[in-house]
Amino acid sequence: MSKIVDGLLYSESHEWVKVDGNVAIVGISDHAQNELGDITYVDMPVVDDEVRAGEDFGAVESVKTSSEIIAPVSGKIVACNAELEEHPELINEDAYSAWIVKIEMSDSSELDSLLNASAYGKLVG
């Protein structure tokens, strides 16, 4: 059974979002990392890139497959987790502490379309 954290928001494409003021901290869910298997590479955007909700901005590669990372919100990338460049397996170890990017949101109302922990649990359950 995959771990789902209360207080986070989730997209149907299995990204999680932690809201910190006007910044969305984004990673992939425990369910997603379980499905992918051993993660070998994380393809991330660069700081100052603009992303649009629903569009891919990177990918997570594993020994089994590659999966696009879909932006849950629109905005500007303000940070990338450089630690994942050397240690992508951190996502397998704890998907909820291994954030991938931080996005300064241009429209926080987009958060309304994301799922809470209960709804995400039903989606993956």
TrEMBL record:
Cofactor: (R)-lipoate
One CC-aspect GO term: cytosol
Statement: the UniProt record of this protein carries the keyword Membrane: no
A Gene Ontology BP annotation from the UniProt entry: glycine decarboxylation via glycine cleavage system
Family the UniProt entry places it in: Belongs to the GcvH family.
Protein name: Glycine cleavage system H protein
NCBIfam families: gcvH, PRK01202.1
Record key words, sorted: Lipoyl
Function: The glycine cleavage system catalyzes the degradation of glycine. The H protein shuttles the methylamine group of glycine from the P protein to the T protein.
Domain Lipoyl-binding, residue spans: 23-104
Pfam families (UniProt xref): GCV_H (PF01597)
Subunit composition and interactions: The glycine cleavage system is composed of four proteins: P, T, L and H.
Post-translational modification N6-lipoyllysine, affected residues: K64
The keyword Lipid metabolism appears for this protein: no
Cofactor annotation comment: Binds 1 lipoyl cofactor covalently.
SUPFAM superfamilies named among the record's database cross-references: Single hybrid motif
